[in-house]
Write a structure and sequence with these properties.
The complex is a heterodimer of chains A (113) and B (115).
Chain A: E1 4-7, E2 10-14, E3 19-25, E4 30-38, E5 44-50, E6 56-59, E7 62-67, E8 72-77, E9 86-94, E10 100-103, E11 107-112
Parallel strand pairs in A: 2-11
Antiparallel strand pairs in A: 1-3, 3-8, 4-5, 4-9, 6-7, 7-8, 9-10, 9-11
Chain B: E1 4-7, E2 10-13, E3 19-25, E4 31-38, E5 42-49, E6 56-57, E7 64-67, E8 73-78, E9 87-94, E10 105-106, E11 110-114
Parallel strand pairs in B: 2-11
Antiparallel strand pairs in B: 1-3, 3-8, 4-5, 4-9, 5-6, 7-8, 9-10, 9-11
Classes of the chains: A mainly beta (113), B mainly beta (115).
């Protein structure tokens, strides 16, 4: 059964630092992978979608990579800002479960001014 | 550009009451999902639909029913609400299950409290 793990569960860093959030999955049968952010009391906002034929995607200060062979995806945030504070979730489309989404539990990120 | 809209955003129910949450999307998406999110539990799939007139059970379907009579709408019903159904409910949609452009879009959530 496909499982998605996000490490660390929580992270607190000073403003301006570059940081990496990790998402790992147990089975390489991931079709595509999407990163979201969720602010407290709010819905989920899509950040990046890495399609099955891609290895990475970039949007502004964010860069996400996907390595199916190693079962890992990373979200790189450059020059972090207090406004980046949120919970970040990854979700993979699992080919072995009728293309359903498998969710990680999230990483709670705090950027200290 | 509405995207995914959920109504109502907040609701308080008494045990045993019924209610329906409405999810509407204007992106002509085939797939629609209902999730619940509880502290420390992450997102759990309740029911989903792969197209108009179809529904399927997710991870935690008990106590809920759904209908997809129109492609743009996905309704989540609670027939007899229980305190264990106190949660934040999220609706989401995407174009298809296997499309390379299958980005998932979420509504803002519906906070339900059952007393």
């Amino acid at each position: 059964k496909q499982e998605v793990t996000q490490i660390p569960a929580a992270l607190s860093v000073p403003e301006g630092e570059n940081l990496v959030l990790n998402c790992s999955f147990t089975d390489s049968a991931i079709y595509n992978l999407q990163w979201f952010r969720q602010d407290p009391g709010k819905g989920l906002t899509s950040l990046l979608l890495i399609q099955s034929s891609q290895r990475e995607q970039t949007s502004g200060r964010l860069n996400a990579s996907l390595d199916k062979s190693s079962g890992r995806s990373t979200l790189y945030i450059a020059a972090s800002q207090p406004g980046d504070s949120a919970t970040y979730l990854c979700a993979g489309v699992d080919m072995d479960s009728n293309y359903q989404l498998i969710w990680g539990a999230g990483t709670k990120l705090i950027i200290k001014p | 550009n509405a995207g995914v809209t959920q109504t109502p955003k907040f609701r308080v129910l008494k045990t045993g009451q019924s209610m329906t949450l409405l999810c509407a999307q204007d992106m002509n998406h085939e797939y629609m999902y209902w999730y619940r999110q509880d502290p420390g539990m992450g997102l759990r799939l309740i029911h989903y639909s792969v197209g108009e007139g179809t529904t399927a059970k997710g991870e935690v379907p008990d106590g809920y029913n759904v209908s997809r009579l129109k492609k743009q709408n996905f309704l989540l019903g609670l027939e007899s609400a229980a305190p264990s159904q106190t949660s934040v409910y999220f609706c989401a949609s995407r174009r298809t299950g296997t499309s390379n452009t299958g980005e998932l879009f979420f509504g803002e959530g519906s906070r339900l409290t059952v007393l």
